[in-house]
Design goal:
Radius of gyration: 17 Å
Number of strands: 8
Structural class: alpha/beta
Oligomer: single chain
Number of domains: 1
Order of helices and strands: EEEEEEHEHHE
Length: about 180
């Protein structure tokens, strides 16, 4: 991953959501600005920007139902920029949007699913691993095809694709997903 222009860490973290001013949770109407990139740029990096966007999960179970909250966030304190251009900002925004797309795909895979109490964590981990791999592969493909925002036609193609894919998964825009647990 170090060879990527934008290094995206896509991590599944299971803990409670707390108010943290360094995090921006994904919202369709809110776009990143260069002021959101607070980390000091890596002097040794050949890249012009670094975006840290992740998926956070919170889980609770009651009776025979599991409630999983899945949110996409951008970490201001781990994201940095060296060269502030509109094209590069659009490229960085799309990395954040791609992470949201995979949050929706994660919710889609879980919604209405039935798990046994005994295998729930193992199955959930397998789904998370699959989402992580597919997301990582898409992020790499995006950077390769756009050459990190340089190939404008490819950048526009990706913007249209991700916008369409997110819209097609609008049924999974709500952060909370419920699953049935059986004994």
């Amino acid at each position: 991953m170090k060879s990527l222009f934008l290094y995206l860490t896509f991590v599944f973290i299971c803990f409670s959501f707390t108010q943290d001013d360094s995090l921006i949770f994904w919202q369709e109407t809110n776009k990143l600005t260069w002021d959101d990139f607070k980390a000091k740029p890596s002097a040794s990096s050949p890249y012009k920007a670094f975006t840290e966007s992740e998926i956070k999960t919170e889980m609770s179970a009651k009776n025979n139902e599991a409630h999983i909250i899945i949110k996409t966030f951008f970490d201001k304190n781990k994201s940095w920029v060296k060269d502030r251009t509109d094209e590069l900002l659009a490229h960085e925004q799309l990395h954040f949007d791609i992470t949201e797309l995979w949050s929706r795909k994660f919710r889609q895979k879980l919604k209405g699913k039935t798990f046994s109490f005994k295998t729930f964590q193992k199955e959930l981990n397998a789904i998370q691993s699959s989402i992580y791999k597919e997301s990582k592969d898409m992020q790499i493909d995006y950077d390769k095809e756009t050459q990190h925002s340089i190939v404008v036609a490819s950048q526009k193609k990706w913007e249209k694709k991700i916008k369409t894919d997110i819209e097609n998964l609008k049924a999974f825009a709500t952060a909370e997903v419920s699953c049935t647990l059986t004994k």
